[in-house]
Task: inverse folding
């Protein structure tokens, strides 16, 4: 079982309802559901410095359930259920640092 989080930049305030629509559009591969932003790449670089993306070599120690799904506009992380609390806190802090939305689709809410 996994715990998913999604990250993207938005200049406008985002609530759970609008974020859910954006998240679904990302997963449905709707063209450009959010605009590319350099902060997304900076966030991703910081994340993989601490928690490298999932590979065959690190699958026993990685917090990821699947490889990170990302573009220059968003990152979707599928986290091991047993590590969800610690990872959610750390990833939310990194998202704040980079000015990104951190969306929890399980609760349909923004993590601030």
Result:
């Amino acid at each position: 079982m996994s715990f998913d989080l999604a990250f993207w930049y938005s200049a406008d305030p985002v609530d759970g309802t609008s974020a859910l629509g954006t998240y679904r559009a990302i997963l449905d591969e709707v063209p450009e559901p959010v605009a590319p932003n350099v902060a997304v790449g900076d966030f991703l670089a910081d994340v993989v410095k601490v928690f490298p993306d999932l590979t065959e070599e690190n699958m026993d120690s990685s917090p990821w359930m699947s490889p990170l799904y990302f573009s220059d506009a968003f990152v979707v992380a599928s986290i091991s259920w047993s590590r969800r609390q610690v990872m959610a806190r750390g990833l939310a802090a990194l998202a704040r640092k980079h000015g990104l939305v951190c969306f929890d689709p399980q609760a349909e809410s923004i993590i601030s």
Remarks:
- The chain has a mean pLDDT of 95.
- The CA atoms of residues 27 and 76 lie 9 Å apart.
- The longest helix spans residues 84-98.
- The chain has three helices and five strands.
